[in-house]
Structure formats: C-alpha cells, structure tokens
Write a structure and sequence with these properties.
Length: about 260
C-alpha cells in the first residue's frame, strides 16, 4: 500500500487531539460536490447571496444569487459542502498560474501577484467562502470542513502558495491554522462592502505542520482526483465522500505493519 508523506507524518504524530477526533467523526458524514458553473440557479449561488446580504456585505438583487465573471473562468471551480446530504457551506477556488491569471486575489492585488506569476509561482486562491447560518451555529468547526477543499487542491495541483483574500480581522485565524503571512495592505473588492487583505501560506507549511496538527485535512489521491479532475456535466453534481479517516487509518496501519506492533 502506497502511503503519502502527509498521512504518514500525521500517523507518526500520535493519536489525534480531541478536537481533531471530533472533526474526523463529522467528516464521516461530509461529502463535497463540484458544481456546474453554467447552472446559475445552483443552490450555492443562493447560499452565497443569503450569507452576504444577511451581513450587509452586498446589495440585494431580484435573482437572489451571488455570481460574477470569475465563476466561469477556465481555472475556476466551485464546491458545495454537505453534511448528511444537506448543503451547509460553499467555496470557490482558482488555480492561479502564469497561463491562467484569473482570480479574485489577482483582480485586487495584481501588483503583488503578477511578478510572482512571472517568476513561475503558482497559487490556489480560495474565495466566496459562505455558510448556512443555522449550520454555522450547529457546527462551529464548519470553516475547517470547508477550507479542507483548499488544502486538498493545494496538494493536487502542487501549488506553491495557498492564498486568503479575507477581512483583516480573519487574518489571525489563517496565520494560526495555515501559517499564513500578510502579502498586501488593505484593499477593496468590487461589489463587496467590506475591506480585504491578502494573506498567503506556503503549501509546504500546510502539508507539514498542518497535517500533523489537523489530520482532518488529510485526503486520499482518489478523493482529490474525483474532485479536481472530474468532468462536470450539466445538472449532475457528483457527491464525493470525505476520505480523511481513510487516509489516516491507512497510514497508521502501514506504519504499524512496518513496526510490527501498534503505534502509541
């Protein structure tokens, strides 16, 4: 059995913390689906709209959806996150490269990211992270379940950095969890009524310290391939079950087999 280095490092780190164990339990009920960007009435666009208008972050519109030009960018993809089959949150990603320069962070901070792209640096740029209000109250750790998508994409696409264009007050969370550092000063994003700041974490940092502290970010190659390499056909959003427990247990079993005795 081929075990990736991230899962092996997490298994060697010992038993998951109580917090991580709880997240792994919830992930057993979680699935992800990549949505078809041509279906403009997909529920995730309405989820975005409700989340932003509830907080006064965007203007109302008669369609009651939140969608923009970047949703159909060739390097973009959006996902719904489901618990027990119910949509609880959503997130959008862009794989930012020298060939494909479409992303929210590039729209706001081209002076910062452009030269890095010219030098060959690649990024995962998450955005439109929104959650159902009731679900966010029922599952306080929902941000971790949602951002797991960004962590998986960073590994799948072998990116150099994972970005976070977020409200400045959210910066400490990304620094604490991912080791993110601030890359640009406070700016504005078109159509949103709050300031944003750009943060970035090296994927090496995410794969090393984060996987050991938060094993629920682990995933199998199969899950990543199904989420990021699948062809999305109109009207069918394939639900992919979270594989964090499988990745962790497989690594633990492999290490125990090699050691000839249970670990820990």
């Amino acid at each position: 059995m081929l075990i990736d280095s991230d899962s092996a490092a997490a298994a060697r780190a010992g038993a998951p913390s109580r917090f991580s164990g709880t997240l792994l339990d919830i992930l057993d009920r979680v699935s992800y689906a990549r949505i078809d960007p041509t279906v403009i009435d997909d529920p995730i666009y309405k989820l975005r709209y409700k989340a932003y208008t509830r907080e006064g972050f965007m203007d109302h519109n008669p369609e009651e959806i939140c969608i923009d030009d970047l949703d159909r960018a060739p390097n973009g993809m959006s996902f719904g996150i489901y618990i027990d089959g119910r949509l609880v949150s959503s997130i959008r990603l862009h794989h930012l490269t020298a060939m494909h320069r479409f992303s929210p962070s590039m729209k706001v901070c081209p002076d910062v990211l452009g030269p890095m792209l010219d030098q060959g640096t690649t990024f995962i740029d998450p955005s439109r992270f929104t959650a159902d209000h009731e679900a966010s109250l029922a599952y306080p750790a929902l941000p971790f379940l949602t951002l797991r998508i960004a962590a998986m994409a960073s590994v799948h696409f072998n990116a150099d950095l994972c970005l976070a264009l977020v409200r400045p007050e959210h910066g400490p969370f990304y620094k604490r969890v991912f080791g993110s550092e601030r890359l640009a000063d406070v700016r504005t994003y078109p159509g949103l009524h709050f300031p944003v700041a750009l943060f970035g974490a090296t994927v090496e940092s995410i794969r090393g310290r984060v996987a050991q502290r938060f094993p629920f970010f682990l995933s199998t190659e199969l899950e990543r391939r199904q989420l990021f390499s699948q062809q999305v056909t109109q009207g069918t959003n394939q639900r992919i079950s979270a594989s964090a427990r499988t990745a962790y247990n497989n690594a633990l079993a492999a290490l125990e087999h090699a050691a000839g005795a249970p670990l820990g």
